[in-house]
Amino acid sequence: MSDEPVDGGVAPPPASAPAGSGRARGRRFRGALVASAVAGLVVGSGAVALAWNLSGSDDDRAFTLVGQVRIKGGPPASGSCSGSHELSDLDKGALVTVYDSAGRVVATGSLGSGAYDHSSACVFPIAVRGVPGGSASYSVQVGWHRKQRITNEQARTGGLVTKFD
Fold first, then answer.
1. What distance in Å separates the CA atoms of residue 132 and residue 130, rounded to the nearest whole number?
2. Residues 6+ apart with CB under 8 A from 127
3. How far is residue 58's CA from residue 118's CA, in Å, rounded to a whole number?
4. How buried is 64 (Cβ within 10 angstroms: 0-12 exposed, 13-18 middle, 19+ buried)?
5. Is pLDDT larger for residue 50 or for residue 27?
6. Which residues pair with 111 in a beta bridge?
7. In the 8-state DSSP scheme, what is residue 12?
8. Which residues contact 78 (CB under 8 A, 6 or more apart)?
9. b vs e for 98-113, b when ≥16 Cβ sit within 10 Å of the residue's Cβ?
10. 8 Å CB contact between 114 and 91
11. Which of 78, 109, 133, 164 suits 62 as a labelling partner, its CA being 20 to 30 A distant?
12. What are 61-74's pLDDT values in tens digits?
């Protein structure tokens, strides 16, 4: 067998353009352009999501409902206190249930320690964390007693005062 080329000595054309050719540079440019566009889309989407989250109304964010339960005082007293008779469920740890305007339970907490104030009323602090915002009003039930309806503003500003006379 001879070492002569079969096609009569003509060298075959190159399979692809050399790395320095214009066609290869165009492919690299398009690849970099696509990668940059994807990166920009990801960063832009993240920025929009962050701005959207930060622009949310404070009314929609969870808050701590703060208030108090007051049991009418009798003779001058001081120190700690708790409910008695029909109010015997009013004591430190009593369940506080918060309902939204649709009547769904949205948060629960408990009463703090009761103490007599200057008028000898027994006062228990209420602090219920994680109350979701966005409801026009709330109802709050302490122990087994009736619910008390309050506005969103009252719930956020400590306007809850439940009185038992």
1. 6
2. 64, 65, 66, 109, 112
3. 36
4. middle
5. 27
6. 126
7. P
8. 116
9. bbbeeeeebbebbbbe
10. yes
11. 164
12. 999 999 999 998 88
How many of the other CB atoms lie within 10 Å of CB of 121? 21
How far apart CA 7 and CA 88 sit, in angstroms, is 109
Would you state the structure tokens that stand for residue 39, as one six-digit string? Answer: 């990166």
pLDDT band of residue 135 (cuts 50, 70, 90) is very high
Phi, psi of 155 (to 5 degrees): -65, -35
Query: What is the chain's percent helix, strand, coil content, to nearest 5?
Result: 25, 30, 40
Cα–Cα distance for residue pair 1/4, rounded to 1 Å: 9
Amino acid letter for position 11: A
For 97, the token pair is 């249930």
Structure tokens at 33: 């352009």
Which residues does residue 96 pair with via DSSP β-bridges, in sequence order? Answer: 109, 142
